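Standup notes
- DV: blocked on the single-chain target, sequence here:
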Amino acid sequence: MGYSREVIGVVLGGGKGTNMEPLTPHLEKSLIRLLGKPLIYYPIKNLVQLGLKRMYVISRNPQRISNELGRYFEGVSLESIGQGGDDLNSALKMVKEVSGKGTTLISFGDVVLPQEAYELALNSHVNSGKAITVLMTPLSDLQGYFEVEVVDGVVINKVSTHKSGYAWTGILVTERDFLNSLYELDGDINGALRLFRGNVNVALWSGWFVDVSYPWDLLSAIKYLLSDLSEARVSKDADISPKAMVEGPVVIDAGAKVDHGAIIRGPVYIGNDVYVGNNAIIRNNTSLEEGAVIGADAEITESLIGRKATVGRGSFIGSSIIGDESTIEPGVVTLNVLPTGVEVSHLSPVIIKGKQLAKLGAIVGPGTRIGANSVIYPGSIVEANKYIQPLSILK
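- DV (later): unblocked, structure below
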């Protein structure tokens, strides 16, 4: 898709991602892998598909971002630069430094949206003739989100209570004058919006939208990303036993091995060099990341199994996230049906659940080992690099 004016893409790589613990002790949130790609890959891919040729990523660790993304976007000018601080204002202030004379499309690096949302935002902006376009979406529960309020102007505020309304999707389309004001106000977006009152366009997106703020949001992102699959895509370099069963839309990457009697029921992603053992069952909305090992007779459903993680023989992992290089010994069971009205607690005593969840299994940090035949209660969070004795009950 081409535009008569120059359009530059800017992706905000995000801060430390402390709400994502225990998954991020040594890794930025934007680099957590889903379906074999870092989280930040998905907004950049959407900008590329819009036809943008110049893009920037503003992040705390630009060199690492560059190393991770360089192989995916050949032929595109993609530069990663550092931001002055960890907050949103610091990142927004930096946008002026990389923007051109034309239009700039800004996207959060931890928001997952389909391509159509980006097209809507940019087309609405071009047609409006306004200085800035804010893309928003209706939500029944805004707690933890940025709310867009349109009353005598437009303001964007973080919501700490349960209420319905319109959430900011993390996408802005702006002209140079607005970015100049944003810079002069040290990234204060509401201050800049007040200056441009009457010159702000609001576009409404009614499709799916995932703001990855907490670990369980990754499971929603996997579900929606896999919803785009319509057929099986199996690498010629994958080893699929003729006695295995593969049903529905799946992606199986090079080097993966699916052994005798295994059942793969899509939508499912199986990454490079993953091993799925005899009679194992891999069911809907599951992502097995590079080098993961699934033992014989294990069952995985609606879960993210991290890179080089192992799930032992006969285990059941449901609605769970198993961190990179963790080991789930044989016979471990994750219970995943939450009691009605339960709140999910983080490692701190603060309640951070922003919406009602029907199912949530375990969130297991990287490098952790869960002993054989343990039972993990719904919503349990296990810190990174822990050892849990066999036959334990985790509540």
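- Follow-up: The longest strand covers residues 165-174.
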